[in-house]
Amino acid sequence: MDVLDGWALGQHTEPTAPVPTHPTYRKGTGPGVVVVAEIPGITSEVVAFAEEVVGAGFTVVLPHLFGEVPSPSGAGAAVRTLAKVCVNREFNKLRVGETSPVATWLRSLARSLHAELGGPGVGALGMCFTGGFALAMMVDDAVAAPVLAQPSLPFAIGRARAADLNLSPADLDVVRRRAAAGCQVLGVRYADDPAVGTRFETLTSEIGDAFVRVELRGRKHSTLTAHRQQVAVDRVLEFLRDRLL
């Protein structure tokens, strides 16, 4: 059985984005949540987490930005996908103070979902390579519940990149304003995960108590999938309920 059985295949187009159209997979009812997969892509673990969000009363959309569908797990698949995304102009991998261009498409997807489903807004959740994209999506008022799971871009090579939020100065200003107005940001990581760098400290410095930190003990990485801990999943679902229901 395909792990995506029961998920409706669609697509979303934003003409101003570097790549205007990407496929999407959708399931559920209730307020919208955009779940952006980590490297290597939409794996069975990513789908299993997304199913938990559906079960909690949400409409989940999984954008297909890279990798196979469904993607195999493991180091080999991760290396193959990473080799492709490293030359993809949609993603800012190394530069500091810049928003990844794919944010334009993701914000448009969130606006479309909110316009269709209504409510206070939609959730946006990114993982690892895409973790910071949820923060970039928060620049749009349609996003009311941004969740950053082990955000890892730009790659944490050197102090500046390790602390960088993958946002332009203008986008960071909007994040600050929205946080000051009451939009909280949830961050989940393993406390000793080197891929996250010092971004959690940067977020606390930039938006203070609006940044809600969930830090698990250890040096593992994928908090909601391969190295899943129920306490992290439960906290994410609680945050989405509080902000969207």
Automatic annotation (TrEMBL):
Region (Disordered): 1-25
Keywords: Hydrolase
SUPFAM superfamilies, A to Z: alpha/beta-Hydrolases
One MF annotation (Gene Ontology) recorded for this entry: hydrolase activity
InterPro entries, per the entry: AB_hydrolase_fold, Dienelactn_hydro
One Pfam family here: DLH
Domain Dienelactone hydrolase: 29-150
Top-rank lineage group of the source organism: Bacteria
Protein name stated in the entry: Dienelactone hydrolase family protein
Organism of this sequence: Microlunatus flavus
